[in-house]
Amino acid sequence: MRLLLRLRAILALALLLAALSSVAHADKLNGFYSGSGGLSQTVHRVLLIEFAADGTAILQQKWHDKDAQTWHAHWKRDKKTVTLTYDAVSDKAVPEPLVFTFKHSTLTATSWDAPTLGVLGPPKLAPFGGKTPQVTSVGSCQALNTTDPTKNCITWDSRR
User: Which of 10, 52, 76, 79 holds its CA 20 to 30 A away from the CA of 136?
Assistant: First the structure.
């Protein structure tokens, strides 16, 4: 009888530890994500997003043979959903929020603004170059450092 109680206690403890470890090892949102795609060269593009710890984000999209487009946004995560809400720019309409599901460290868009990110939406985004920690803020960024995304973004001061 005592052996049975001990086995039950050990089993209960093992189940509790397994549940806690799965929460502790949940996917973490890295600082930098990238993806590319397109059905042909003329509609091919690269999308880069940097997520900062303070909830700011910067998105940069580069279509083939076109200038890069850059947007500032704020992000929030609710379990497996990551939502980016674009910051208002003086005289332009604010795009609809970009919503992703977050699974196995990959961001897959479920809702987006078609005029901004195309009819087929953004490509799946994976962490850039492994684990890239989040920076404190990207609020002062004017563009991403596309030559080396692991370095700081480009600010007005660094464009001199």
Answer: 79
